[in-house]
Each structure stands twice: as C-alpha cells, then as structure tokens.
C-alpha cells in the first residue's frame, strides 16, 4: 500500500516540474504524517529493493516534519538517489543542514565512516550543483565550508557566477538587493580564512582575472604567488596596474629582464607617484597653494559681532598654523609659508622648541613622495644652529620617503647617522623618521641583521644597557614604535620578545612614564591581524607589573584580532568595559568612609566615657614609654561606648567634637 502511494505521489516527469506541481505533489503527504513511524517499520520489511528505495524517498521527505534529527539524510542515502531538487528547495535545505551534522560525526576515520563520507560527498556535490543552478551560491559555499571541502567549489562555478562567489568569500559590498548575504573571510579564524582567500584566488585565475587574483595573493602575503601571477599576465597595461598596486602595498618586485622592466620598476617603486598626483591636481585646478588664514576664514572675523580685528600671535596658534599649512598643501609641493628660506626661518622662530620641531617636520607633508625636490628643500635646514629645526627636518625626510623605494635610499643614508647622536632631540627626529620612511617595508637593507640595517640599529637603541644610559625614555619609546611600524603584521617574535623583556626589567616608577606606552603600541603593531600567533605574547606581557601589564595585554589582543569579528573577543572586551577600575584614591576614600574599617582585636579594650572631660583607660600595661609613641588621630562614629583598638599600651584621651556627631581619640 505504501509503495503504491509512493508511486502515485511521485511524478513521472521531473524535468518540467515547477513550484505549483511540487505543492500539488506534497498535498497528499500531509495525510501520511501520522503514519510516519509505521512507514519506517514497513520499509524494513519490504523485500523488493526498488520499492524499498521508493519508500525511503517518501520517508526522507516526511522526515522534514519529524522529531528525528537525521532521518531525512539517512533515508535519502537509502533511496533511489533521484535529483535533490525534485522535492523542492526546502527539502534541499534540510538535507544540507543534516549533511553537515552527519559529516562531523564521521570524523574518526574508521572504515564504516569513510564509506559514509563517500556517500555524503556525492550528495554534497548534488546539492552544490542544485544551489548553483538556482542562484543560491551563498548556500553552496556555506555547505562546502561546513564539510571543509571548499576546493570542490572551483569545478562547479562558471564565469557568470564566479564574481558573486568571490565577493561573498572576500567581503566585498554586494549590490543593494543582494546584501542579505554576509561575507566569510574576515569573520573566519586562521587557517580557515586562508582557505577562503586561496579559493577566491583560484577562481579568479580560472577565468583569467589576473588583477583580482593578485589582490588575493596580497591578502595572503604570498610573494611567490604574486610573481607567478604576474608572469601569467600578457597585457602590458594590466602589468602596469599591478605594479602600481603592489607598490602601494610595499611589495617591490625585481623586473630585471622583463619586457618594459624599467618602466614597471619605476611604477612599482612609487618614484613617479607625485607626478600622477600633481597631474590630477592640475586637472582639478587645485594646485594653488592655500594658507591657514584662508582655511580659518579670518577675513570674516571683523564682520562678526564682537569680532576682534587683530588675533594674538601665540605659540599655540603658530603651531596650529604649521600643521594646517602642511595638511592642506600635502603632496602638492607648493606653499606660501616655507617656499623661501628666509620666510621659513622667520616662521620657525615664531615657535618654541618642539613647536619648531613640528613646523620643520611639516615640510615633509608639503613635499610628500617627491624625493628629489623634497630633499633639496630640506637640505637647507640641516645646517642651521638650532637642533630642534634640524631634528624636525630629519623627520620631514622620513615623511617624504615613506612608501618610496629609491635606488639611492637617501633616508637610510641621512637618518642613520643621527640615531646614536648625543643630543636627544636629534635622536627623536631620526628614529621616528626611520619608522615612517620604512613602514611596512620588507627590503633587504631594512631587515638585514648587521651593521647598517635599520631594524638592527633600532634594536640597539632599545637594548642599550649602559648605566647611566645616554638614551632617554622618549627615544626608547619612539624606537619601539618605529619597529612596530616597520614590522607591522609580521608577528616577529624575536623583536617583540626583546621589547617585552626590556619592559620587564623596568620598575613601576619607570613604567609610569607615558613614553613606555609606545612599547606596548609597537608590539601590538607587530601582531596586527595575526590572531592566534599573538597568544604567547599576550600571556607573557601579563607578567609585567599592574596596571601596565593588563593594558599591554589588552592592546596586543585587540590589534591581533582587529577586523576579524571574533565574537568571543568582543564579549571579553565588553566584559572589561563593564568592570569598574578602582584607583588608589578610590580605595583610600572607600576605606576612610567605611565605619567597619577600624580594626578590632580581643587583646585590648578601651572604655570610653560620654562626658567631655572623661579619660580613656587601657586594660593592658604599656611595654614602652608613651614618649616613644608616635602621635596619630582617628575618628569614630558617635554612639559607640566600647571600642577595641589594636594597640592600647598607652593612655588615650577622648575629645568630643563641636557638632556632637563624632569623637576623636588622640594618642599621647
């Protein structure tokens, strides 16, 4: 009877079946739900294999409404293996959900489980094919991610769908109607996110999307793969675009022997970047230099109510004007305040010390990326008498050289000469300038562990143990920050451990110096985005004295999981935000206001009289003379006639206060 019902309910022709037909076929099935358990028993007794498989198909569909967790997929595997889409999309979703659960249960590697996984893998392929045909690429990706076989996706994606699949894997914004699908890679921990990015790269390569493939290789930080993809590219314009893209990510390749190698090398080294920026500025007609007064709109001050006709010439306003001038003219190579040396000197000396330092450093913003012209402008101020102007000029050279790979490497040649200077401010300018000039740089001249290497020289600044040390805490902190900028995201445990060890040797007073926070930031930058690779360092820095140790550990942990969307880390940070941090002052005031804070012991007892002239007698005998006792005062609340004091080896006198609310006991 069940077999006949199965045959009647099953449509003869599947290919032309639409949603109305599916609904019509499923209508009689609702009358069979009460007989679900009976059908399972009948299925076991059916002798004809063909009819038994038809019955299994029917039970698999009915299992969607049962309480049995995996009956749907079990009876699917016992059925006729008909196309998964014949019973509708909801049935396919149930199969996919149960398939991922069953896959996890068969992970022990036994023979029986291996055979089960082979069957599940065949079913997974059918489900993925169905999803890809019905514009359900997200569900297909999720299923393959759950069973850890994302490599199968490449064979099922065609050129029309590969862009949507890659967008889902790499967290790119989808069109408005498709934003219900969330991305995977940034929200997935290591090493699963690497698999997602590598799959997207392979999909791009399959359809000759070389620029997109290079972007994926950059995310993987795989230089060898970048070189391989670059060699596969035959379009010269696309190669130039790749060279510029790699240069912006501080990945410099050797183009010697390649076609158009010299031009590609120049594009990759960013040496012509300022020319493209100036060309854009001229096209937009914004090359005219701007002044701080034009930004402030100071010419409107006189027309405003109560407006002053003349603004005071203060050091703070001059410093603000130096920053404004640098930022509004950043990269344009023209300005009105420091174009001439006399004007620049006049402007520098309107500031004091580090104000002059900042004003001189703002030259680097104006001449950003332009090595030749920028260094010529800065060279004028390297021979002045004031150290703050010279140090600011060193920092300006670092700003100009940031992100540029010049074959002469002028930043290293100029700045390394002042790293070990006996003048602290010169060290500040050179050390921080090196950090900016070689931020995220992987060049051999930077990372080599020998004399003349940038990282090697900065590490010497941190590990200097001379006593008394000629290196100030400010210089050490900026050296640690510069190392973090250069080694950002590399998880270099050697440098990080050196910095942590240096902090462990410092006292609590030294750790209270604000410059020590640069150490924490430098280590955090080294582990930026590295996730689990930072766990050892996080536990290590907790050994540093509080409260610096907990701050240090939190900062490293936050940077390690930045942009990952890790739910557990977010919950931990929210828990930290909800806690109240008590300072020493809070604890003292709380202790003072608590009436129970007065210590009590059973070794002595003091009886207090309520009269103004009463005396307090101690029950114990003094062991030393009262003259040797120190004088102290403390307050007690009124209404306490009997008190127990920790030390009563002396006579005390109670003095009533004027308001009658408190009494005061004075040691005599």
Give the helix level as a range of percent: 40-55%
Low-confidence region ranges: 1-24, 172-183, 598-668
Mean pLDDT: 75
**Strand residue content:** under 5%
Which structural class do the helices and strands define?
mainly alpha
**Number of strand elements:** 6
Question: How would the blueprint of this fold be written?
Answer:
Blueprint: H1 2-9, H2 19-26, H3 36-45, H4 49-62, H5 71-78, H6 89-105, H7 111-133, H8 137-146, H9 162-170, H10 192-206, H11 210-220, H12 223-232, H13 236-248, H14 261-268, H15 273-284, H16 292-296, H17 315-328, H18 341-348, H19 354-361, H20 363-366, H21 371-379, H22 387-401, H23 410-415, H24 424-437, H25 444-447, H26 454-462, H27 473-486, H28 493-504, H29 508-511, H30 517-526, H31 535-541, H32 548-560, H33 567-578, H34 584-593, E1 606-607, E2 615-618, E3 633-637, E4 642-643, E5 652-656, E6 662-667
Antiparallel strand pairs: 1-2, 1-4, 2-5, 3-6, 5-6
Helix pairs in contact: 1-4, 3-4, 4-5, 6-7, 7-8, 9-10, 10-11, 11-12, 11-13, 13-14, 17-19, 19-22, 21-22, 22-24, 24-27, 26-27, 27-30, 28-30, 30-32, 31-32
Descriptive notes:
53% of the residues lie in helices and 4% in strands. It contains 34 helices and six strands. The protein has helices at 2-9, 19-26, 36-45, 49-62, 71-78, 89-105, 111-133, 137-146, 162-170, 192-206, 210-220, 223-232, 236-248, 261-268, 273-284, 292-296, 315-328, 341-348, 354-361, 363-366, 371-379, 387-401, 410-415, 424-437, 444-447, 454-462, 473-486, 493-504, 508-511, 517-526, 535-541, 548-560, 567-578, 584-593; strands spanning 606-607, 615-618, 633-637, 642-643, 652-656, 662-667. A six-stranded antiparallel beta sheet has the order 3-6-5-2-1-4, with no helix packed on it. Strand 5 (652-656) and strand 6 form a beta hairpin. It starts with a helix and ends with a strand.
């Amino acid at each position: 009877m069940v077999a006949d019902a199965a045959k009647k309910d099953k449509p003869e022709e599947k290919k032309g079946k639409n949603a109305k037909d599916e609904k019509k076929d499923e209508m009689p099935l609702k009358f069979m739900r009460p007989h679900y358990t009976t059908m399972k028993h009948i299925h076991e007794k059916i002798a004809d294999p063909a009819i038994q498989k038809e019955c299994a198909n029917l039970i698999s569909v009915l299992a969607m409404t049962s309480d049995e967790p995996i009956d749907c997929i079990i009876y699917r595997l016992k059925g006729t293996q008909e196309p998964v889409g014949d019973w509708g999309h909801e049935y396919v979703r149930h199969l996919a959900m149960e398939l991922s659960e069953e896959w996890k249960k068969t992970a022990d590697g036994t023979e029986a489980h291996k055979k089960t996984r082979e069957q599940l893998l065949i079913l997974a392929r059918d489900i993925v094919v169905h999803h890809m045909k019905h514009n359900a690429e997200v569900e297909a990706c999720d299923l393959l991610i759950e069973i850890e076989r994302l490599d199968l996706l490449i064979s099922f994606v065609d050129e029309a769908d590969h862009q949507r699949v890659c967008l889902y894997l790499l967290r790119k914004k989808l069109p408005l109607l498709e934003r219900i699908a969330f991305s995977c890679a940034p929200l997935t921990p290591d090493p699963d996110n690497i698999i997602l990015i590598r799959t997207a790269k392979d999909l791009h390569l399959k359809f000759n999307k070389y620029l997109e493939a290079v972007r994926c290789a950059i995310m993987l930080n795989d230089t060898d793969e970048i070189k391989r993809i670059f060699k596969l590219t035959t379009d010269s314009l696309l190669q130039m675009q790749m060279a510029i893209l790699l240069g912006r990510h501080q990945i410099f390749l050797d183009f010697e022997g390649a076609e158009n190698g010299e031009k590609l090398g120049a594009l990759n080294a960013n040496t012509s970047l300022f020319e493209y920026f100036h060309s854009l500025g001229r096209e937009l007609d914004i090359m005219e230099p701007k002044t701080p007064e034009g930004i402030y709109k100071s010419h409107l001050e006189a027309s405003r109510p109560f407006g002053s006709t003349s603004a005071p010439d203060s050091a703070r306003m001059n410093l603000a004007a130096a920053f404004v001038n640098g930022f509004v003219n950043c990269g344009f190579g023209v300005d009105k305040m420091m174009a001439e040396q006399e004007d620049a000197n006049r402007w520098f000396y309107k500031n004091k010390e580090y104000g002059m330092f900042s004003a001189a450093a703002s030259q680097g913003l104006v001449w950003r990326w332009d090595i030749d012209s920028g260094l010529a402008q800065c060279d004028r101020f390297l021979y002045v008498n004031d150290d703050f102007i010279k140090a600011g000029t060193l920092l300006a050279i670092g700003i100009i050289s940031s992100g540029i790979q010049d074959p002469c490497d002028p930043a290293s040649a100029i700045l390394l000469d002042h790293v070990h200077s006996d003048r602290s401010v010169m060290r500040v300018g050179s050390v921080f300038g090196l950090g900016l000039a070689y931020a995220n740089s992987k060049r051999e001249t930077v990372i080599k562990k020998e004399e003349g290497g940038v990282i090697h020289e900065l590490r010497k600044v941190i590990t200097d143990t001379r006593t008394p040390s000629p290196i100030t805490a400010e210089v050490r902190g900026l050296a640690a920050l510069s190392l973090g900028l250069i080694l950002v995201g590399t998880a270099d445990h050697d440098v990080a451990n050196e910095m942590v060890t240096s902090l462990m040797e410092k006292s609590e007073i030294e750790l209270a110096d604000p410059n020590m926070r640069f150490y924490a930031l430098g280590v955090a930058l080294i582990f930026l985005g590295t996730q689990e690779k930072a766990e050892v360092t996080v536990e290590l820095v907790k050994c540093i004295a509080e409260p610096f140790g907990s701050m240090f550990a939190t900062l490293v942990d936050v940077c390690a999981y930045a942009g990952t969307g890790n739910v557990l880390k977010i919950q931990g940070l929210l828990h930290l935000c909800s806690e109240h941090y008590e300072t020493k002052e809070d604890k003292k005031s709380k202790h003072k206001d608590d009436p129970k804070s007065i210590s009590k012991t059973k070794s002595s007892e003091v009886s207090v009289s309520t009269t103004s002239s009463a005396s307090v007698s101690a029950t114990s005998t003094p062991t030393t003379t009262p003259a040797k006792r120190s004088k102290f005062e403390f307050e007690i609340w009124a209404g306490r006639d009997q008190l127990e004091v920790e030390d009563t080896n002396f006579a005390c006198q109670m003095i009533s206060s004027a308001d009658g609310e408190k009494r005061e006991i004075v040691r005599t």
